[in-house]
Amino acid sequence: MRGIAPRRWYESIFRPWLPTVTLLLISAIIGWEGSICIIMAAPVFLACSSIGGLCAKYFVRATRTNFVLAGLLPIIASPIESRLPAQTHIGVVESDIVIEAPRAVIWREIVNVRPIQDDEHKASLFEAMGFPKPISAMVDHEGVGAIRQARFAGNVLFIETITTWHEFQTLAFSIRLTQKIFPRPHLTNTSPWEANILTCCLVNII
Prior knowledge:
The chain is an alpha+beta fold. 39% of the residues lie in helices and 19% in strands. Strands 1-2-3-4-5 form a 5-stranded antiparallel sheet, with no helix packed on it.
């Protein structure tokens, strides 16, 4: 096994990257994972593979038995991991946009979004990853309890129930999907966005 084990420390760091990158490429080619998942996972996968390479060099003897055990470890651990309860995380994302316009104009454009033409769309990372383009949004009446229908490409419809209505100042609503948002099967099957209530959105006009 002497020819298999890396002889230099930097080989232990970078040689494990080869199977890791191969796995990520295969996942992208055959559609196991979406591009956003691969981009987020790549740094973690590469770092862990390097740590494993260093541990194998300095703490584990390079015997045939150890290599076999290392290969079987994911298969053995997978049934145990699948029985662990999934963790739920609720996060808050805030963003600010400066618009030089009267409050009434901003409010009108937020509450009812006129149909967006193709030449008004700008290229974005989210659309490149497969998220549908927004088309329009219309509210059936004013005030709390109103229903706002937000339409996206691919016949995706968001049903938004207004929960807070302070005219020209604050608009909040919960979002329910009429169908799964992701057009790609590997994203649709694993996405937590399949739930009836997707999220809550709060808009403040200062």
